[in-house]
Amino acid sequence: MPMQIGLDELLSALFGRVEEMGLDNENQKSKFNIMFRALYKKGVFNDNDIIDAVKDENKILLELGLIKEMPSDEIIKAAADNIMLWIKGDVKAIKNSVEKFQQKLKEAEAEQNKPKIDVASAAVLNELDRMNANKNNHGGLII
User: Fold this and answer.
1) Could you please report the per-residue DSSP string of the chain?
2) What is the pLDDT of residue 60?
3) pLDDT tens-digit profile of 21-55?
4) Which of 46, 48, 49, 68 lies closest to 58 in space, CA to CA?
């Protein structure tokens, strides 16, 4: 005999699983951060090794077709620097970079919310005027 389950029970189970996955992800990030900090302090790798690893990662992504072009050296260095901030545990620099990111995000939101005036080309206006004239059986200019 089939077992019936309510929608609320199903959603509750799914949300619980998603929450577990989120916690697992955070736990894995913490473990990787700890492991890489220990390896960095032991001198197993340096900043240039991270730059090379970021380049290698992007080459693989490019060859797989997951990115359209290789990022510039400037972008690769910025990504490597960001990784190294976490590995080195430079809290002051991390806070500074988060503040800069939040500022850029606010500027982008403000720019997006500005009113926009779009101007149609003459060809589009003529087409709209023709459609309006056909619809109303008399001419009328759209301004």
Assistant:
1) -PPP--HHHHHHHHHHHHHHHHHHHHHHHHHHHHHHHHHHHTTS--HHHHHHHHHHHHHHHHHHTSSSSPPPHHHHHHHHHHHHHHHHT-HHHHHHHHHHHHHHHHHHHHHHHS-------HHHHHHHHHHHHHHHTS-----
2) 96
3) 888 888 898 899 899 999 999 999 999 999 999 99
4) 68
Cα gap 120→126, rounded to integer Å: 10
Q: Does the pTM exceed 0.85?
A: no
- Residue extents of the structural domains in the chain: 7-115
> How far is residue 16's CA from residue 31's CA, in Å, rounded to a whole number?
23
Radius of gyration of the chain from its Cα atoms, rounded to whole angstroms: 27
Look up residue 3 and give its amino acid. Answer: M
Q: 54 burial class (0-12, 13-18, 19+ CB within 10 angstroms)?
A: buried
Amino acid at 106: K
